[in-house]
Amino acid sequence: MMYLEKPPKLIETRMFSSMPPEFRRPGVSSEWADANRGGHPVDCFIEGPSFDKSGNLYVVDIPFGRILRISPDRAWSLIIEYSGGLMD
How many Cβ atoms from other residues are within 10 Å of residue 87's Cβ? Predict the structure, then answer.
């Protein structure tokens, strides 16, 4: 049992942004999906959120080897695309 002097404060959350359709890759196969999803394609799988000093949020789209930036005004942009997927 966890000991708390007072219950944790509940914080209401809301979605900041979601990946726009133009960056999704529905039905596209990837090595990552083959290894991690039994070959079922995924249109994106983002991880690794990190902010810069200007408030931009960077995320990695693991299956397709992309780093994307989300600006404070919620605009998405592709920063770089690399071979991605699995590391040899």
Answer: 5
Using one digit for the tens of pLDDT, what is the confidence trace for 23-82? 999 988 888 888 888 888 899 999 989 999 999 999 999 999 999 999 999 999 999 998
Q: Over the Cα atoms of the chain, what is R_g?
A: 17
The domain locations on the chain are: 45-88
Cα separation values, 80 from 10, 58, 61, Å: 37, 11, 11
The pTM score is 0.77
Question: Given 3-state DSSP classes, what are the helix, strand and coil percentages for the chain, each rounded to the nearest 5?
Answer: 15, 25, 60
